[in-house]
Amino acid sequence: MRVKNWTHLFPKFAGLWVAFAKDKQTVISSAKSLKHTVKMAEEKGYKMPLLFKVPMESLPYVGSF
After folding, report:
1. Rounded to two decimals, what is the model's pTM?
2. Minimal CA–CA distance to 24: which of 57, 1, 40?
3. Which of 24, 25, 50, 61 has its Cβ near the most Cβ atoms within 10 Å?
């Protein structure tokens, strides 16, 4: 699995849930609640989008899972 750089999301989507298209780069919907984000994505025809909660700020992370 390749690493995705989503740091460009912080200025616009900080604190929001974001739904991505299959390319994992295109934002198809965003909202404060997960439920609303999924609903908007489904209305656009995306049944199972990739979902990500954008943190309030970008912090460095070193380590593994």
Report:
1. 0.80
2. 1
3. 50
Residue with tokens 């740091």: 7
User: 52 φ, ψ to 5°?
Assistant: -150, 130
| Span 23-58, pLDDT tens digits | 988 999 999 999 999 999 999 999 999 999 998 887
Residues 6+ apart with CB under 8 A from 17: 30, 31, 32, 33, 34, 36, 37, 51, 52, 53, 54
Q: Which amino acid is at 28?
A: I
C-alpha span between 16 and 43 (Å, rounded): 18
